[in-house]
Amino acid sequence: MTDKITTDGITTNQYYELCKTIKDLLNSKAEEYIKNHEVKQFLSDDPFPETEKNKIPDIERVYYLLINRLKNWVCKEQIKKDGGSFWKKKFRNKPYGKCSCGDDFHIGDEIEFHHKIRDGRHPIPTHKKCHAQIKNKK
Ligand SMILES: [Zn+2]
């Protein structure tokens, strides 16, 4: 596969390598955790309905339980660095500075937050209408 440079500098091959590492780790952990009594209990307490056509093996269910846990962890890690809902609520209640359109923010403005890229910086506050324009430019 051709390695491509992306906008954040992480190449496509580096990204695929990371994904494979995570997938291998999750598969390995699923095989480990499926042996736990509590996990077995969860799987038997929550079986697929008889009518469900897309039944998957228990090991795959555990893999997807871990995917869900990973997703929650990713959200928490992002919130730690990009301000989270508390910072956004505080900004909405008492906005300051200028929007990308050049106008000042005022109390009561509909404000949305633009993540140029999630690299740990706070998102950029924008008027709701201005955010729509920024997103359409992409
Ligand atoms: Zn604006």
Task: Explain how this protein is built.
With 138 residues, the protein is mainly α. The chain has two domains: 12-82, no CATH class; 84-137, no CATH class. Helix content is 55%, strand content 6%. It is built from five helices and two strands, in the order ααααββα. The chain has helices at 12-33, 37-45, 58-82, 84-93, 128-137; strands at 111-114, 124-127. Helix 1 (12-33) packs across helix 3.
Concise structural overview:
The protein is mainly alpha-helical and 138 residues long. It has five helices and two strands.
Quaternary structure: single chain
For the largest beta-sheet, the strand count, sense and barrel status come to: 2 strands, antiparallel
- Radius of gyration computed on alpha carbons: 21 Å
Put simply, the count of helices is: 5
Mean pLDDT: 91
> Which series of helices and strands comes N to C?
HHHHEEH
The shape is elongated
Q: Helicity range of the residues? A: 55-70%
Distance between the termini: 26 Å
Layout: helices, strands, pairs:
Elements: H1 12-33, H2 37-45, H3 58-82, H4 84-93, E1 111-114, E2 124-127, H5 128-137
Antiparallel strand pairs: 1-2
The site of zinc ion has 6 residues, from strand 2.
Looking at this protein, list some descriptive labels.
138 residues; mainly alpha; 6% strand; elongated; binds zinc ion
